[in-house]
Amino acid sequence: MRARRTSGIVHRSGPGAWLLRGLLFTILGLFCLYYLFPLFVMLATSVKSLAEIREGSFLAFPRDISFEAWAKAWGAACVGVRCDGLQPYFMNSVMMAVPAVLLSTTLGALNGYALTKWRFPGADIIFALMLFGAFIPFQVVLLPMARTLGELGLAGTVPGLILVHTVYGLAFTTLFFRNFFIGVPDGIVQAAKVDGAGFFGIFFRIVLPMSLPAIVVTVIWQFTQIWNDFLFGVAFTVGDSNPVTVALNNVVNTSTGVKEYNVDMAAAIIAGLPTLLVYVVAGAYFVRGLSAGAVKG
Amino acid sequence: MAGTGFLTTLSRGFERRLPLIVVSPLFALSLFFVYGFIAWTVWISFTKSGVMPVYDLSGLAQYERLWTTPRWYVALKNLFIFSSLFIGISMALGIVLAILLDQRIRVEGVIRTIYLYPMALSFIVTGTAWKWILNPGLGIEKLVRDWGFPDFTFDWLVNPDYAIYTIVIAGVWQSSGYAMALFLAGLRSVDDEVLKAAAIDGAGAWRTYTRIVLPSMRPVFLSVVIILAHLAIKSFDLVVALTGGGPGYATDMPATFMYAFAFQRSELGMAAASAVMMLATICAIIVPYLYSELRGARR
């Protein structure tokens, strides 16, 4: 038998309890609708024709489903003056997010491991100082970062964005792995040290294989953060090197010609699809990331 | 033989210092890109820098300019309106939904997923959707008018006095599920024995929650306030996607103000001064919190 939790308004039987239970589900259901309706509106609008959008209500189900707007958003919509759709920018985001996630996660794992399992004088202070970097408003580093990227010859490039996301993701990935490694018993590492295993030997053969959950949480979190970033993308890239979030904003705000709302909505879904898929597939890990590294915005 | 002995000692010494050798470059990166950059921005905020940075100090001139700029006051007022409503409503929704979800519901996982999915999306994506829903000509206003209320007006998105509230609407929608998840985790950590004792004492649901459960969750409330305040102060994408700071600069916030002065108007000194003000605000909230968290963790 499952352990009964005593918390809860409804734990008696009888008609009153049934009524309360019904009310509870009604409220929860209504809130499901509240959270889902913007997604529904996006999806429905993206498959409607412009005529149908103008005539009908934005909440109505589409009469004729057409994926023309999707095709246009992906391959032909105008971002500024260039009309190749979101596709090249989507690829930019992939080229940016994948290396930045791998780099920041790897370095964070090493850092967290060194700071918890090989404690040296000052480790706590170093951690505290690095942790602060996860909470600063990035406005305070925008100007010097723009200049530094210029000096490095990385201004307006995807590698520049990889550097930015790696550097500012590091504080966060370190926090994740440190919190995870603190729960790993020191005895395991001590025993391996006695057996003559070294820093990297212990890391790769013992610590890393057991930190799969931490790796998954960190990768998912970093991917979501980096893919969804807008501030760095808009500040440090121009035109061709824009990530998809910036390109989406440009599509939506392009004022030339007829406003194609269905294309806007299709573009928004395309830009949101990767993180949405990650969330649906690995939602539990995402939730863990949200609460573990709660303070990153 | 002596040579190998020396090498062994050397490699042992290297091995012993490896953790430090791994951490040092990463720490150096953080020193440069976080603390160095902050120092640079603070320095620039004390200069007359315009399009190009100059390094001659000129006192508090930029701060005086900042605090006499009407647009900065608009940004601060908006931040105040936005963050108090955003934090208040998100928390109220979050705690209510968390309590309702904590009633041993079989489909809890599905419902939680639905409540929380907006957090996985970029504000630019959801902002696009909300811009469409709030669009007077095509969204809610048109819907209600078509229902037979031709005088119904809901033009907040383009009304300078009300546009900031549309940002609240979209922000709450996006983040209240997150508050719910944090509260739910807090509710789950309340000791079951305490709840059983309350039930045996015959305390009703209302009394159990208001007298026992919620007071014991005080640290969770504090965390949620800080997390949401942090989100609010940094909000940039949502404003850009929904209103672009407009109409005019009616929905400007410190983050968009800083961006406009740095990258559109090229007034580096003012931009730096506003960024420093943002940093100071965040520090006032985060540093005491982090300090107590880290101390708490060590104990």
From TrEMBL, chain A:
Family of this protein: Belongs to the binding-protein-dependent transport system permease family.
ABC transmembrane type-1 domain mapped to chain residues: 90-282
Taxonomic placement: Bacteria, Pseudomonadati, Pseudomonadota, Alphaproteobacteria, Rhodobacterales
UniProt superkingdom: Bacteria
Annotated Gene Ontology cellular component terms: plasma membrane
Organism listed in the record: Rhodovulum euryhalinum
Topology with respect to the bilayer: Multi-pass membrane protein
UniProt cross-references to InterPro entries, sorted A to Z: MetI-like (IPR000515), MetI-like_sf (IPR035906)
Localization annotation: Cell membrane
Swiss-Prot/TrEMBL keywords: Membrane, Transmembrane, Transmembrane helix, Transport
PROSITE patterns registered for this protein in UniProt: ABC_TM1
GO biological process terms, semicolon-separated: transmembrane transport
Family matches, as Pfam families: BPD_transp_1 (PF00528)
Record's keyword annotation contains Transmembrane helix: yes
CDD domains: TM_PBP2 (cd06261)
Record-annotated membrane-spanning stretches: 18-37, 94-113, 125-146, 158-181, 202-223, 265-287
Name by which UniProt lists this protein: Carbohydrate ABC transporter membrane protein 2 (CUT1 family)
From TrEMBL, chain B:
The ABC transmembrane type-1 domain, residue ranges: 76-291
Alphabetic keyword roster: Cell membrane, Membrane, Transmembrane, Transmembrane helix, Transport
Recorded GO CC terms: plasma membrane
Membrane-traversing stretches: 20-46, 79-101, 113-133, 162-187, 220-250, 270-291
Primary location recorded for the protein, binned into one broad class: membrane
One annotated GO biological process: transmembrane transport
Entries under CDD domains matching the protein: TM_PBP2
UniProt keyword Signal present: no
Protein's membrane topology: Multi-pass membrane protein
UniProt-listed InterPro entries: ABC_transporter_permease, MetI-like, MetI-like_sf
Localization of this protein: Cell membrane
Pfam family, one: BPD_transp_1
The keyword Ribonucleoprotein appears for this protein: no
UniProt-listed PANTHER family: ABC TRANSPORTER PERMEASE PROTEIN
Protein family: Belongs to the binding-protein-dependent transport system permease family.
Protein name: Carbohydrate ABC transporter membrane protein 1 (CUT1 family)
Organism: Rhodovulum euryhalinum
Lineage: Bacteria, Pseudomonadati, Pseudomonadota, Alphaproteobacteria, Rhodobacterales
